[in-house]
Design a protein that fits this description.
The protein has 200 residues and is an alpha+beta fold. It has a domain of 120 residues: Jelly Rolls. A hairpin with a 5-residue loop joins strand 4 and strand 5. The model has no long low-confidence stretch (mean pLDDT 90).
Length: 200
Amino acid sequence: MRFEHIKLSTGMSAILREQFSKYTDLTDGEFEYVLSHFTYRKLKKHQFLLQEDEWALNDYFLLSGCVKSYYTDASGKMHILLFAVQDWWITDYEAYYDQKKAKVNIDCVEDTEVLCLTAENREKLCRELHQVEHFFRKKTNRRNVALQNRILSLLSSTAKERYEAFIREYPSLVQRLPKHILAAYLGVTRETLSRLYSSK
């Protein structure tokens, strides 16, 4: 697995800077220091960011592209947990925080560029900069809420309601995702998804 320490373009670093600015204030010098703790990785469509039974060494911030997180059950059925696109974070968080091997796979739906942050560097930054600790606490809170809402949706919503909610929340993703992947995320068959498409 190849990681690079590179000088990011202004546009790339601006994506991460904007993400931090939503929750906290960093001086230019502080941001450059934070950025120096990330590594860069570029991946092709279908390439894995993380595979089951690998050590989850990094949290990934997407600069471009789209990835999916999923697990495959004993019967071979794929269950998609979530997607991530530009400006989103993704990893197997249990494995990342507890230094375990991953339970899920994360692979690229499109060609993707990410910034990688090790757990060690994250803890270092949180110790040294209160603003960074505040940022990650806010991000964790938002992620917890989003995952709870996803579970409640799967438990209590119809396929049609889940599909309509996805369109409302992620309109740009609908056209980017292959139908079988979106169907797996919504917990329906591809045939059911096709009927939902045709009813719109």
